[in-house]
Amino acid sequence: MGRQANTFKFQEAGVLIVDENTGFMDLTAQILLGFGFRKLERRGLKEAETRAGFDPDLIIVDPFPDLDTGLRLIEDHRRKQTAGSPPAVVIVLTGHTPRPLIEKARRVGADYIVAKPFSANTLLDRILWSTSSVFANVACGELGDDDRADTPLRASIQSATAALLQ
């Protein structure tokens, strides 16, 4: 399993990419493979909503063109989480970022919203920030932004960022 008490190993983490645009889904998958992720599943919105059998550690979802289905997917996943284990990180990756969407996505359980088009650096930064936040909250309770810098993933964040920038 990719989730443990205070670590998030990319090569072991299961990732679910949900998007109606296969080109963006392929691009996102290639970027994630470059980061070291190896367990990827790609699905359209309807397929992701109805198909079971995969418990991802990271979900990257574009809720459009069917906003209700996309947000329900996040909400349903949050409702089904196992108590006591770190929740999956949910990143909304979309070309539509009006304030009402951002607020709705956060309310149903999205950890971060990233606007398309996006850079690989931005996506990596949001994944690392979200995973470190999740594990800091699980291990230590709610932490402020200043405390988050001292999480066990700090070295991983620095090394991953340095590797990406080389």
UniProtKB/TrEMBL annotation:
Q: Which residues carry this modification: 4-aspartylphosphate?
A: 62
Instruction: Tell me the ranges covered by the Response regulatory domain, including all copies.
Output: 14-131
Q: Which GO terms describe its biological process?
A: phosphorelay signal transduction system
Q: Which Pfam families match?
A: Response_reg
Q: Does the keyword Zinc apply?
A: no
Q: Which InterPro entries match?
A: CheY-like_superfamily, Sig_transdc_resp-reg_receiver
Which keywords does this chain's UniProt record carry?
Phosphoprotein
PROSITE patterns assigned to the protein according to its UniProt record, in alphabetical order: RESPONSE_REGULATORY
Indicate yes or no for the key word Phosphoprotein. yes
Q: Which SMART domains does UniProt cross-reference here? A: REC (SM00448)
Please state what the protein is called: Chemotaxis receiver domain protein CheYIII
**Protein's organism:** Caulobacter vibrioides (strain NA1000 / CB15N)
Q: What is the lineage of its organism?
A: Bacteria, Pseudomonadati, Pseudomonadota, Alphaproteobacteria, Caulobacterales
